[in-house]
Amino acid sequence: MELVTRFEAATLSTAELYGLRKEAFIAFNAAPRGSQDQRDMLLTMRNIEDELATRAPGL
Hints:
Layout: H1 6-10, H2 14-30, H3 36-55
Helix pairs in contact: 2-3
């Protein structure tokens, strides 16, 4: 799985982001510990979470 940037995440629907977050989580766990792939998936999940946070309704 490729790294998803914040800009790429902004172009996706909320449903797509949730699906991609799941894929990134699975890829993170499958990657060797401390590898570049694992770091990329961690960053991908962070970018997705940041984008989802901007879409959350305010309280």
